[in-house]
Amino acid sequence: MPALPLETAGKYVAAAYVVFLALVLVYVAIIARKVGRLERELSELEETDAEHER
Amino acid sequence: MTASGQPQTAARGARRQVGAARAGLAILRKDLRAELRAREAVPAMALFSVTAFVLFHFGLDRARLEGDVAAGVLWVTILLATVLAVNRMFVAEREQGGMEAMLLAPIDRTAIVLAKAAALFVFLAALEVLAVPAFGLLLLGGDLIGALPELAALLAVADLGLAAVGALVGALAAETRAREVIGPLILLPLVVPLAIAGANATEPLFAPAGGPAELGRWLGLMGLYASVFMLLSVAVFDFLLED
Amino acid sequence: MYARALKPLALATAAVSALAFTMIFFWAPLDADQGFIQKIFYLHVPMAIVALLGFLAAGVMAALHLRTRDRRWDIRSYVAVHLSIILAVGVLVTGSIWAKASWGHWWVWSEPVLVSFLITFLLYAVYQPLRFSIDDPGRQARYASVFAIAGAAFTVLNFVAVRMADAYTHPRVFSQTGGNMPPRMFVTFVVALAAMALVFATLWTLELGSKSASERLRRARRRRERDADRAELAGAGGERPRAGAHADHSPAAAGTATASR
Description:
Chain A is 89% helix and 0% strand. Chain A is an all-alpha fold. Chain C is built from nine helices and no strands.
């Protein structure tokens, strides 16, 4: 198995690490969206609470 | 607790213990009798297998198969045919309400899973009695009779594993809405180890030169597989049946 | 509860990952055979190991769920499966890239780890469809747990089987230099593995935190709706003669009534 020259090899290695990074970031983005929804629902709840107290 | 309470519960306990084996046999007999009368699962599987052989003939564009290709076609066909039986395993109980009756009866739930697995084993054995000769007739280039003893042993052990996994998957898929789709999707990856072991072990049996058969390691793998899944099915079945 | 663990975890993950990156690209020696391509090994193999451990851990947590009936174990198991599936995809993609760079093919059947992961992935891909095709939440959790346990047992058996299948047909393609890895490579590998495990732990804690918070929110909301209902009924049907009907609206009854809705 002859070693690939650095330029071509570098692209493959970079691609692999980018894939990993992309997976992690996509995952974090999905969680972030869920947390955003949570915050929205919480603020709704707080509003209805405030209304009831009035 | 009355004075007669203790001997009563002891007797009931003893009765319950005997009941487990008897209940299991009863369920097994019911399933077998239902199959004999309705003749749905085994004929369907046999028909499927022969049709698959025809498809393989045209797909591979070969008149006779040998060695690894022959082994592969036979094992893959049997595994795919198992899907047909597994899908139907609990359908009868759900549709006709037999499930409630079984659950209400004071029997050990282990009996149910063992009975279902035993029924599946019998169906698979029946299928193989039909499909293997058909394979020998239609596709196999080599000598089937010579390979028969080893092949029978391989199929028997594989069927144990298939029966255990099939019972588990049948119960899992029974409650889902997309039963016919989810069942095969779960079952087929699960049986890959059996495909590996079966095909690899059978390859020298179907080889033209009749190479040495190294059954030991493959039988060991299949035996391990069967033991693991039998233990697993018995351990978790309670959780699948409860309501 | 989860948020508190999250900060130290995230910091540790960042630190160890940074260390791993530095070691991989600036400290570990270049592989004699494969050259720079071998650097993928520090990503691909830790991902594989952590994914496998993830599936096994999910099986254990599922068993705990069945034993203790505590739904929290089911959620932990679910998240572990979820994350391990994502890692499995990563294993397949990075393995494919490695195969292409090493052999010129985007897929090779002669690499047992890659093949095993394909099969395992195909199995676990059915986990979520199975869950969402069962409506009753208790049953859904139980069935998913059974699946996770069977999957864990299967993953081990599958690896053994695929390894056996490959044993004498093909030599190992990715010479992982496992037996005689130069010490620097080995240390780098261990650090990379630690980094991957920390990434898994952090993301797991993150998702669990989000799930548990949304569960608590749902419960709080339901409690408020129940209180609001009770207040309405008390206000509207204030006449005593209806006491018989109202007597049923004890917290327990109301709780079960709204829970079954």
